[in-house]
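Long-time lurker, first post. I've been practising inverse folding by hand and with some scripts of my own, and I keep getting stuck on stretches where the structure tokens seem ambiguous. Below is the full token string for one chain I'm working on. Before anyone asks, I'm not after the true native sequence, just a reasonable design that respects the backbone. If someone could post their per-position residues I'd love to compare against what I wrote down in my notebook.
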């Protein structure tokens, strides 16, 4: 089943195109990593899917055109986490994550015991249970990123959009977060779309890479198909070697010019 379909999607700011004619389809349970140089339009593309910016073309989620949905309806289908989300420092982890249940509440309704159970279960799955009563501004960077992921997960959507989920994390914490996300994807059948600057991580975890540059799709495919030294030289102006791990995944290694 197709979880996400984009046909000719474009976005313009003040009449200036920043995303042009993007078309891609992602099956249920898949992981798409959107990669590309700074300013390529990656974050804007995710915002268009999340309904945060107007767009041309069509976006369909689980067979439903998103332009037929209200904001609340979309929030029950699509979970979105920005690259640098605003985290109210004095809010506890539980209260922050509970905000993810808002799309499922009626007007003036309060959270129920069932909502709290969903939050507790999600915190436990992300090893945040012991931090449930902690205020957000007392957390480490990795713990905050997990709290953001928890808030999105409690929406109980089948499509997650995560903009640079490993931003600011060291290699160990970044790997741990992606491992958790991959495990949740496998266990729950969630479909994942991420932007990632780290091309090696993108190739390790995503089924498909979508390389965009100047707002346009340059190539889509597996890590080995997308990540070639020639292509990265063209689109990133980078001198690299593309190696292969013992598990068969590509690794992008920068090479000094002298």
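-- Answer (accepted) --
I ran through it position by position. Result:
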């Amino acid at each position: 089943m197709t979880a996400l379909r984009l046909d000719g999607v474009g976005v313009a700011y003040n009449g200036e195109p920043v995303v042009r004619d993007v078309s891609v389809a992602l099956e249920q349970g898949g992981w798409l990593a959107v990669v590309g140089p700074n300013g390529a339009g990656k974050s804007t593309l995710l915002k268009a899917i999340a309904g945060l910016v107007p767009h041309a073309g069509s976006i369909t989620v689980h067979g439903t055109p998103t332009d037929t949905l209200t904001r609340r309806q979309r929030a029950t289908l699509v979970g979105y986490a920005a690259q640098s989300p605003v985290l109210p420092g004095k809010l506890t982890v539980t209260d922050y994550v509970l905000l993810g249940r808002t799309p499922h509440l009626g007007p003036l309704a309060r959270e129920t015991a069932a909502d709290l159970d969903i939050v507790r279960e999600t915190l436990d799955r992300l090893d945040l249970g012991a931090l449930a009563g902690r205020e957000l501004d007392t957390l480490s960077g990795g713990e905050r990123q997990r709290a953001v992921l928890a808030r999105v997960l409690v929406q109980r959507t089948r499509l997650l959009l995560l903009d640079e989920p490993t931003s600011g994390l060291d290699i160990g914490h970044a790997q741990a977060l992606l491992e958790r996300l991959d495990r949740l994807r496998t266990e729950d059948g969630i479909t994942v779309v991420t932007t990632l600057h780290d091309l090696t991580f993108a190739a390790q975890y995503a089924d498909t890479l979508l390389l965009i540059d100047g707002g346009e799709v340059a190539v889509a495919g597996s890590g080995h198909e997308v990540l070639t030294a020639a292509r990265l030289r063209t689109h990133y102006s980078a001198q690299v070697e593309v190696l292969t791990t013992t598990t068969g995944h590509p690794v992008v290694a920068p090479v000094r010019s002298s």
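A couple of notes from the structure itself: The chain is about 35% helix and 30% strand. The mean pLDDT is 94. Happy to go over any region you disagree with.
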